[in-house]
Design goal:
Layout: H1 2-17, E1 28-30, E2 39-43, H2 60-70, E3 75-89, E4 95-108, H3 109-125, E5 133-137, H4 142-152, E6 158-161, H5 167-176, E7 179-184, H6 186-194, E8 204-207, H7 216-222, E9 226-229, H8 230-239, E10 252-257, E11 267-271, H9 272-283, E12 294-297, H10 304-316, E13 319-322, H11 342-346, E14 350-353, H12 355-372, H13 374-392, H14 395-399, H15 401-415, E15 424-427, H16 434-444, E16 448-452, E17 462-463, E18 476-477, E19 482-486, E20 502-508, E21 515-516, H17 520-526, E22 527-529, E23 535-545, E24 551-556, E25 560-562, E26 568-570, H18 571-578, E27 584-591, E28 598-604, H19 606-615, H20 623-628, H21 630-646, E29 657-661, H22 680-686, H23 688-696
Parallel strand pairs: 3-13, 5-6, 5-7, 6-10, 7-8, 8-9, 12-13, 12-14, 14-15, 15-16, 28-29
Antiparallel strand pairs: 1-2, 2-19, 3-4, 10-11, 11-21, 16-17, 17-18, 19-20, 20-23, 22-23, 23-24, 25-26, 27-28
Helix pairs in contact: 1-13, 1-15, 2-3, 2-10, 3-4, 3-8, 9-10, 12-16, 13-15
GO cellular component, one term: membrane
Protein name: AMP-dependent synthetase/ligase domain-containing protein
Catalytic activity: a long-chain fatty acid + ATP + CoA = a long-chain fatty acyl-CoA + AMP + diphosphate
Length: about 700
């Protein structure tokens, strides 16, 4: 109890002594730029966009070689060895694979460079020509990064493909880019075998695992494919070295296929200069990054966030330890009970994360705290409240002795979840809720740098600085970018708005990519070059600038929403698929970026639903009463699921919960236009309470 008293008195004294003082620090400054009229902001430390942070370094291949020479004997790439793979049977009879993983085994910068050179030479020996493209189709791992850098040394463009991509999108990506060599893992190779007859140009497959699936032999016999293990390619290159054929800054390094907001995914073409500009900019933002840092890599390398992050670590001389979302912590799904998760085994100091991961960490901690109860829970709640008050109040309370006190008494136990040493987190890919951001700030004792960027801008855009403790914003422009707001009169967003300028966000700078592969029309629609030669990307997002030059995302021009796990939902596409249900008169899908599922408001078809109810012997007072009955909602929901599956919608696109509305949507009610198109914003406001209940109800 003495600790409880000390924990109350000490912070109180310090709060009286150290008052909150806001220094009004400018993080972004207005700048005069060309192009369309608007309100533009630059980074407060750089007057013009940064292209490279290193003299004489202009490509990713140059940067990797420089770091490997500079940090030759230091650890670079780490992978855990597999001790055992077991099946655990749950009480309900279901079987789950559990892994027992050992310690990390490391390649130094010098050895990693050798592996890259060997793979590069082996690729040439296999017959892959410079003008041909390679696709990497695998989960994040050591071989992924080695393959990437190996391709760069041959000036081979890499097509990145999510390991979770469906068959149709996978075929589209490989065929559109005319890939001749695919580098993949064992489980991805099985997918390739299943669609081998639909692939037009593939000649070679390199499997990252030595154990190659048995059904591959059938494909090799019926196609012109050759299948080789990754290790054999390295051995081939080691025995037959080939001189490097290094790229130029304007050469396309990567064609990155997005997850696809509507229809098939688009391939974004990124030059070496584009990606290098973002890497150079991020190097200036992460505090004190250097050789003592250890980075836990587990996000998809096929996503620009992770690809940039790992190259930043290489540039700074950090160690990169590979893991996965399913083995991240000691309690992760695939970790054997009693064995260590990746974070515990590695002890990272730096991590990138998506909001869904941070939400899981938060929920896991709260679950343990609530389970303990008693004095332990009271102390945690009090400490959390004091730290939250301090972060919103005095600078000293947020970063001084009070912070050290609570970390020692309470929060150091929480830090163990992610290895106990994390000092900085980068969050991106989707909006991070203010509650989760504060929770991680407090319990892990580490700042979160929340950023905003797109595949089309190589993740470069804005980034919040380590000393910015605000929530709900995405920071000031990175040194590689200018951020401009332009008027969108149709939505009422104008740079003349008060108290903050608002408008569509466009991003300009050397990090803005070349455009979409084989899609000139879309490229010309979303990319513009101004009279000064600067390339701008029109994001379609709506933002507003705060007085200190930091950006806040407030809306989206198109009806496309990114869910919590990063999946895009096209509201109109889904509505068009679901309205075929006989029970639906009209429907509005609603997606919230802070949740992993959609909900829907359904204007029910009265005649059809009443006929169904009578056939089922359901007694109801009136149509409104019928719409509120549980069995009615189950029937309509089942019908929507059936329609969604028939239209081949993804699970996350089909609403998880619905609200049945008895009143029809008519032009007279103001909910639809004269052409009977739904007025989305009007419906949202009218039924805001119902939508809120759908997300809060169990």
């Amino acid at each position: 109890m003495s600790a409880y008293i000390v924990g109350f008195v000490v912070p109180l004294v310090f709060t009286l002594i150290f008052r909150n003082t806001k220094n009004g620090k400018k993080r972004g400054l207005p700048v005069d730029v060309g192009g369309e009229p608007g309100y533009a902001i630059r980074n407060h430390r750089f007057t013009s966009p940064v292209e490279s942070a290193w003299e004489g370094i202009s490509t990713l291949a140059d940067l990797f070689e420089l770091s490997c020479k500079q940090y030759k004997d230091k650890r670079l790439l780490g992978t855990r060895n597999l001790i055992s793979r077991e099946n655990e049977v749950a009480e309900d009879g279901r079987s789950f694979e559990k892994l027992h993983l050992g310690d990390y085994e490391w390649l130094t910068f010098g050895k990693a460079f050798e592996a890259v050179c060997n793979f590069s030479s082996g690729l040439a020996q296999l017959g892959h020509e410079r003008e041909e493209r390679v696709a990497i189709f695998a989960d994040t791992r050591e071989e992924w990064f080695i393959a990437l850098q190996g391709c760069f040394r041959r000036n081979v463009t890499v097509v990145t493909i999510y390991a979770s991509l469906g068959e149709e999108a996978l075929c589209h990506s490989l065929n559109e880019t005319e890939v001749t060599t695919v580098i993949c893992g064992r489980k991805e190779l099985k997918k390739l075998v299943d669609i081998s007859g639909q692939l037009d140009t593939v000649k070679r497959v390199i499997c990252m695992d030595d154990e190659i699936p048995s059904n591959v032999a059938l494909v090799e016999g019926s196609t012109s494919w050759t299948v080789t293990s990754f290790s054999d390619v390295e051995k081939l290159g080691q025995a037959n070295p080939v001189d490097a054929d290094l790229p130029l800054p304007a050469d396309v390094a990567v064609i990155m296929y997005t997850s696809g907001s509507t229809g098939l995914p688009k391939g974004v073409m990124m030059t070496h200069g584009n990606v290098l500009a973002t890497i150079s900019a991020v190097m200036t933002i992460v505090p004190r990054i250097g050789t003592r840092d250890v980075y836990l890599a587990y996000l998809p390398l096929a996503h620009i966030l992770e690809l940039v992050a790992e190259n930043v670590m290489v540039a700074a001389g950090c160690a990169i330890g590979y893991g996965s979302p399913l083995t991240l912590t000691d309690t992760s799904n695939k970790i054997k009970r009693g064995a260590k998760g990746d974070a515990t085994a590695l002890g990272p100091t730096l991590m990138a994360a998506v909001p869904a991961i941070l939400d899981r960490v938060r929920d896991g901690v709260l679950k343990k705290v609530n389970a303990k109860g008693g004095l332990s829970k009271k102390l945690f709640d009090f400490a959390y409240a004091r730290r939250l008050s301090a972060m919103n109040g005095s600078w000293f309370g947020a970063w001084g002795l009070e912070r050290l006190l609570w970390n020692f008494l309470v929060f150091r136990k929480v830090r163990v979840v992610l290895g106990g040493r994390v000092r900085f987190l980068l969050s991106g890919g989707a909006p991070l809720s203010g509650d989760t951001q504060r929770f991680i700030n407090i319990c892990l004792g580490a700042p979160i740098g929340q950023g905003y960027g797109l595949t089309e801008t190589c993740a470069g855009g804005t980034f919040s600085e380590a000393d910015d403790t605000s929530v709900g914003r995405v920071g000031a422009p990175l040194p590689c970018s200018f951020i401009k707001l332009i008027d969108w009169p149709e939505g009422g967003y104008l740079t003349s708005n008060s108290p903050m300028p608002r408008g569509e966000i466009i991003i300009g700078g050397p990090n803005v990519t070349v455009g979409y592969f084989k899609n000139e029309e879309k490229t010309n629609e979303e990319y513009k070059v101004d009279e000064r030669g600067m390339r701008w990307f029109y994001t379609g997002d709506i933002g507003q600038f705060h007085a200190d030059g930091c950006l806040q995302i407030i809306d989206r021009k198109k009806d496309i929403v990114k869910l919590q796990h990063g999946e895009y939902v096209s509201l109109g596409k889904v509505e068009a698929a679901l309205i075929v249900s006989p029970y639906v008169d009209n429907i509005m899908l609603h997606a919230d970026p802070f949740h992993s599922y959609c909900v829907a408001l359904v204007a029910a078809s009265q005649s059809t639903l009443e006929d169904w109810a009578k056939s089922q012997g359901i007694v109801f007072i009136d149509f409104s009463d019928l719409c509120q009955k549980e069995e009615t909602m189950k029937e309509v929901h089942a019908s929507l699921i059936k329609a969604g599956k028939k239209a081949r919608l993804e699970k996350f696109e089909i609403p998880a919960k619905i609200k049945l509305l008895a009143e029809a949507w008519t032009p007279e009610s103001g909910l639809v236009t004269a052409a009977l198109k739904i007025k989305r914003e009007v419906i949202r406001k009218t039924f805001s309470e119902e939508l809120s209940k759908l997300y809060t109800s169990r």
